[in-house]
Specification:
Layout lengths: L3 H24 L1 H7 L11 H23 L5 H25 L3 H23 L2
Length: 127
Amino acid sequence: MKNSQAWQRFFQFSAIFNFVAAFGLLFAPELLFNILMMGDALTSEALPWLHQFGGLVLVFGIGYWVISTNPMLHKDIVWMGCLGKVVVFTIAWIDIALFNAPIGFGILVVADLIFAIFFAIVWRASE
């Protein structure tokens, strides 16, 4: 694959993006919710779900870091990451459209869609 080092850095950046999001979900949910314009939605009942989601975001980040060591070798994780990012984007915008969820989260997950496009490029190149 051309620009292998650039793709390795891209997946490192993807991992760091997930690590930051996971950190926010796990350790600073109040700050994260305020940034996303969802401050009044943070309840004690929501915290366990946020922590579960944060754990999953962290695990995906670890997967992206593994990919960065050799994107062609880890094409199955690339595919899973691409699918996961598209699902997160889609569900967020369904929640906005149908359930009046705050737009802040929808804006953040546009980044996931952009990452998914690049993940798909790498996955297709590995075929």
